[in-house]
Structure formats: C-alpha cells, structure tokens
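Weekly structure sync, notes
Attendees: PL (lead), two postdocs, one rotation student
Agenda item 3: pending single-chain targets
PL asked that the sequence for the first pending target be pasted directly into the notes so everyone works from the same version. It is reproduced below exactly as submitted, 282 residues in total.
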Amino acid sequence: MSSTPLKQACVVGWPVAHSRSPLIHGYWLSRYGIDGRYTKRAVPPEEIEAFFSSLAAEGLAGCNVTIPHKEAALRSAEVREPSATAVGAANTLWLDERGRLSAANTDTYGYMTYLALETPDWSRRDAPVSVLGAGGAARAIVYGFLEAGVGEVRLFNRSAARSAALAESFGPRVKVHAWEERSRASTEAAVLVNTTTVGLKGDGTLDIDFTDFHPDCIVSDIVYVPLETGLIREARRHGLRTVDGLGMLLHQAVPGFEKWFGVRPEVTAELYELIAADIEAT
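Predicted structure, written out during the meeting:
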C-alpha cells in the first residue's frame, strides 16, 4: 500500500535567509494538521530558470519567489494570471493539474485585502490615491487601486523615468508628479502608501508634512521592519489612521498555500502576533 507523498513548497530568492515565509506557512501547516513541508532555497540568478523547470522533479508543488527572481518567474511560467501579467512579475508559482508551471502576483491581493480589513471605508471619498515609489511593489499596488475603481493614482518617485514607465503601462488614470510634490499634492488623498524601502530597519525618512492632509486620509506603509515606521508614527501623531506592512505580507501568502496544500488558510491574530514577535526580536 503506497503512502501519500509529502506535500512540499518553498521560498526561493538570492539571498533568502531573511524570509519569514517558512514561519508563516509552518504555522498554517501545523494549524491545519497537514503533512507538509515549507523550506528556503537560495538560488543564484544564473541557476533560477533551471530551478523553476525542476520543481516537479524535486517534489515541489510550487514556491514563493522573492528578489531578484520575480521577473524570471513570470518568464518561466506557461500559465500566467492577470495579476502577474499586469505587474510584470510573479511571486507565486505552482504546478496546475496538467503539470504546467503557473504564475500569479499575490502582492496586489495581499495589500488590498489588508487595507479593506483594517479600513473598510477607505474608498468612500472620491479622492486620488498617492503612491510613493515606482518599483515592483508599486506596480502591484497601483494595479490593485485601479482594479478597485480609483479614478486617479498619483505617483511620486525620485526617478522620473521609472514613474513615467509605470504610468505608461497602466494608462491615463496614473499621473506622475515630482518627488518634491509628495506632500503638497497628497493633501486630499484617500490613501497615501509608501512602497519604497525608505524606513526599512529605521533607515531614512520620507519627510511627509501631514499638517494639511484631509483628516480621513489613510497612511499605509508596506515596510514591516520595524512594525511602526517613521511614516506611520508621524501620521499617527497628526491623528491619521494607519495601516502597517505586516498584514500585506501575511495575506499575500494565502493564495499560494491554498494552491500547494489544498486548504485556504486564515490570517489570525495569533499568526500576526507570532510574526510581529519575530520582527521585534531581530
């Protein structure tokens, strides 16, 4: 009598030691009593396409993909969800029922889901959304706001060329503004979100002047180390509602786990506290 093969997935990056994905997925494997394993795999860029093509041979149902392999993940996939195509990168891969390598970008889902849970009324004002940054995370979040029906997304980035390229790929609802206008042009924003790495581990400051911001503006930061970034702290000081970056990390992990292990997991307060404690311990 043959036994059921162990279900396995991993996170792949270069480097990948910092990833908290094994802690998240390990929590769910334990909670749902699944006989599975989730590990870290450090793969250099010159070997990544070979790695993606060998998932089945290695007994992997799929993987999470982190920097710098997200674009290669999209290129390697045979089946691509609209989220990955729109963003131009994939962070989640799985083998479908026909064994085809399939790709999604779940950053959009993770960000928009947590924003809606924390601030269900974020879209009640017909107001623009301000996005700081023009990298991969910005693309995922701009896509999410446009899909949610936001009429105008204002983009602020130090590199005007990158802002212009992002705006061109998404169309006229995305407006490029100079980095120096990030405070003045965001005073009426429904949401202001930082997608840059400024504030990571307490480094740097975004220098946003919240003095004249609409009192209903929600300030969001996808940086989650520390949990309370300088941007979040300053927004709270001005009485504005805030959304931290940890929730996005947790919710973006949900679709992949379901694809690999067959159960749609719940992001619980216990899981949030588990990861928050790990962040604070580092």
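Discussion points:
- The mean pLDDT is 95.
- The CA atoms of residues 228 and 252 lie 20 Å apart.
Action: rotation student to compare against the earlier draft before next sync.
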